[in-house]
Write a structure and sequence with these properties.
The chain is an alpha/beta fold and 389 residues long. Helices cover 39% and strands 15% of the residues. β1, α1 and β2 form a beta-alpha-beta unit. The longest helix is centred in the middle third of the chain and has 22 residues. The radius of gyration is 26 Å and the shape is elongated.
Length: 389
């Protein structure tokens, strides 16, 4: 029988992070069952008060955690932090190198006092010439070439989400899971893990770097690229809509042409294979656009779906809150902000034993768990003293 518990139950994570990358790591660990204790300064994580496009940052990336307020300028709170780390399996941080050393939480101090601890530092860069630099998602997108590939050489464009921050948090989770697995094998020592935002973005553009290595040709940006398929484009539709259609196999080509009355393409002896069709895109695409323009998105979606051809309407994020697949049972989970207000959010993009993960998570109010965690630590301290006696 398959167990129903979450895989990281019993794992304690202490998190001192802010913004997106570090909190994403903690949020995923929490959804996988770990107890994640977010340590905040008395003024709270600055992300709590962000507005505009940042209004979702704190609730989205801090769901399912406990909040403890500690003032590390005070000896009592530093002692509490030390006891908290002694009870933990993992410590997450995303401060600039050297910043935590002033509070006795540098790598050397942690390794000496808590050799069992898995320390995961989310940084701008891995070790090297740039390790001292701060970084932001947009900075590394520009620096790695991702912005140039997303936009054009003359007008680089960042990806439309905090993609690198989120992916960096995911790599943090991967490394932490590997360290936890290593400890299961009997290794009692912890691990020092460093995750680089820039290197994460470099990983994303590796396909273009290797393309250049293999061919000597400079990769062209996505808007300017050479197409690998005869039909792989966005088309206007009746009613003012738009749809993306990708015809990528021989079977797709045959069925698409038959379905949409493009027999002239099938009869054309100069369009017998994919290479010939790609070379003829300048006359294929205008004709296809003419045919697609006469049909609406709903009709096109139904016909393309029946043909098993890849397609998509051109959605905006708000459109997805009415999408039938997103609205399937478990597609969106109900969570609650610190003020108790509910909000819906996509479930963690995995199914665990046939179910979705993340339902019912709460965003902690600032310091909501401080006294409870202190009491737990004091209880454990008394219990250890009694056992020693």
């Amino acid at each position: 029988m398959i167990g129903t518990g979450l895989p990281l139950e019993g794992v304690r994570v202490v998190e001192m992070t802010h913004m997106v990358m570090g909190p994403t790591c903690g949020m995923i660990l929490a959804q996988l069952g770990a107890e994640v204790i977010k340590v905040e300064p008395p003024v709270g994580d600055k992300t709590r008060s962000l507005g505009g496009m940042g209004v979702s940052f704190f609730p989205l990336f801090n769901r399912g955690k406990r909040s403890v307020v500690l003032d590390l300028s005070k000896a009592e709170d530093r002692e509490t932090m030390d006891r908290l780390l002694a009870s933990a399996d993992v410590f997450l941080e995303n401060f600039r190198d050297g910043q935590l050393d002033k509070q006795g939480l540098g790598t050397e101090d942690l390794r000496r006092k808590h050799p069992h601890l898995i320390v995961a530092g989310h940084k701008g860069f891995l070790s090297g010439p740039y390790e001292h630099r701060p970084a932001l998602d947009e900075v590394v997108q520009m620096m790695s070439g991702l912005a140039a590939m997303t936009g054009t050489r003359d007008k680089p464009q960042r990806v439309g989400s905090s993609a690198n921050d989120i992916m960096g948090g995911m790599f943090g989770v991967i490394a932490i899971l590997a360290a936890l697995y290593q400890k299961r094998g009997g290794n009692k020592d912890g691990a020092d893990i460093r995750i680089g935002l820039f290197e994460n973005c470099l990983f994303l553009v590796a396909q273009h770097m290797v393309e250049y290595e293999m061919t000597g040709r400079k990769p062209r940006s996505m808007p300017e690229r050479e197409h690998a398929w005869p039909i792989y484009d966005i088309f206007d539709t009746a009613g003012g809509g738009r749809i993306f259609i990708g015809v990528v196999t021989e079977g797709h080509w045959l069925s698409f042409c038959r379905e949409f009355g493009l027999q002239e393409f099938l009869d054309d002896p100069t369009l017998r294979n994919t290479t010939e069709r790609i070379m003829a895109r300048d006359r294929i695409i205008p004709r296809v656009a003419e045919v697609i323009k006469g049909r609406n998105v709903t009709e096109l979606s139904a016909r393309l779906d029946a043909l098993n051809i890849c397609f998509s309407p051109i959605n905006r994020p708000e459109d997805l809150l009415q999408d039938p697949h997103v609205l399937r049972p478990g597609g969106l989970v109900n969570n609650f902000n610190a003020d108790g207000a509910p909000f819906r959010v996509p479930a963690l993009p995995v199914e665990w034993n046939g179910g979705n993960i993340g339902e019912g998570l709460h965003v902690p109010d600032l310091g909501a768990d401080t006294e409870a965690v202190r009491a737990e630590l004091n209880k454990n301290k008394l219990s250890s003293t009694d056992n020693a006696a």
